[in-house]
Amino acid sequence: MADQGRVAQAHQDEELLTLLYGQFQRMLFSQVLCLTNYDRQWTEDVVQETLIRAWQNSAHLVREPGMLRGWLCTVARRIVIDGWRSRQARPQEVELLRPDIAESPDDTEQTLSVMVITDVVRQLSDEHRSAIYETYVMGRTVKEAAIVLGVPEGTVKSRLYKAMHTIRRALQDRS
């Protein structure tokens, strides 16, 4: 007796699924498509979930097409509403078209180097600072810097060498 009941239920479930897919799938898809703002993938998911819920509740459904249609539309609308609510509850997902724009450059190393260099340059003598200023900041050649500073070219070169050596050593010590 129990086996006959299961066979009859399985047969009824099969009939229900055939009815649901044959008569209601297209109608349900077009209605849900409007509710999801024409998001086809979401619509397909909602229709599938609605039909799964109908199959799960097949023992309690009235098999009349008008009643089934109303039940399916109500369930689908509730699934969409739940989807909208969950989308509003979490941050909006965005697709990155260029992954390189998501990465924020880390300027910490450069900022730290500038701070160290600034500190070291302040500690240099006026002569060394003047040689760096005239060549690196003002963009003058060693010959031009020598004329401006009123010293021989060799003196400018020597001051630049010692100043740069001090700066490099300070940067290495920081590492």
Automatic annotation (TrEMBL):
One family name in Pfam for this protein: Sigma70_r4
GO BP: DNA-templated transcription initiation
Keywords (A to Z) from UniProt: DNA-binding, Sigma factor, Transcription, Transcription regulation
Annotated signal sequence range: none
Record-annotated RNA polymerase sigma-70 region domain positions: 20-89, 122-168
MF GO annotations: DNA binding; sigma factor activity
Family: Belongs to the sigma-70 factor family. ECF subfamily.
Family matches, as PANTHER family: ECF RNA POLYMERASE SIGMA FACTOR SIGL, RNA POLYMERASE ECF-TYPE SIGMA FACTO
The protein's name: Sigma-70 family RNA polymerase sigma factor
